[in-house]
């Protein structure tokens, strides 16, 4: 079958995933029988109405929440039944872009980005500073490297948080509405950057969004409805 680009290996495999919140009478099942293969090197978008389970699914595959029923294999490792310590280990390979940016108020944009790196010191310190500057510049913040969060707008803070998530070269990037606070130009910078990482480094990018600017650039769009996957389509979007 013709594909718009070479599809990379499966980096995330979900089988028979169910999830419920609460116990007893308060128990509410929010995910039903999710089967899904996500490929490296692609920008995959998850969309669907509010409450359809997108964030729950994202946090389960991100090892942020424990998988109780079914199977989630992330980079070959089973998350169902994994200990908290194993999940912490797993999370080190991931880049998270979530809405609350949690920037350190007393640190500059560049210093905040540095917090995204597990390794510091020596050559690594020089390399990070270069990578951090480059990322911030790609996100339109070249003039804001030394500003602290109080001197940045909401959208600029969001972009600093995105640079922080990406500076450690994560193999998998998980993002929840990363462009919600951004104007059109900044949103496109973010999506182009994520797509370039997918293409050039084989990064797996999974993003929850309703943003039509993002949808236009996605390789694949998966739609959820009431806790189930109801549509899954590939796009021929060029880069
Ligand atoms: N911690 C929780 N405890 C109980 N119920 C929850 C919890 N988190 C989410 N839910 C419920 O699970 C369902 C799915 O929520 P989820 O946040 O995954 O949906 P979503 O598709 O991401 O929605 P939105 O687009 O509004 O963010 C909703 O009915 C929500 O109320």
TrEMBL record:
UniProt KW keywords: Antibiotic resistance, ATP-binding, Cell membrane, Membrane, Nucleotide-binding, Transmembrane, Transmembrane helix, Transport
SMART domains hit by this protein: AAA
Residues covered by the ABC transporter domain: 12-239
GO molecular function, one term: ATP binding
InterPro entries, per database record: AAA+_ATPase, ABC_heterocyst_DevA, ABC_transporter-like_ATP-bd, ABC_transporter-like_CS, ABC_transpr_LolD-like, MacB-like_ATP-bd, P-loop_NTPase
GO CC annotation terms, alphabetical: membrane protein complex; plasma membrane
Pfam families per UniProt: ABC_tran
UniProt key word Lyase: no
Lineage top rank: taxon: Bacteria
Keyword check for Lyase: no
Transmembrane segments: none
GO biological process, one term: response to antibiotic
The family this protein is said to belong to: Belongs to the ABC transporter superfamily. Macrolide exporter (TC 3.A.1.122) family.
PANTHER family referenced in this protein's UniProt entry, alphabetically: ABC TRANSPORTER, IMPORT ATP-BINDING PROTEIN
Protein name as annotated: ABC transporter
Source organism (scientific name): Kinneretia aquatilis
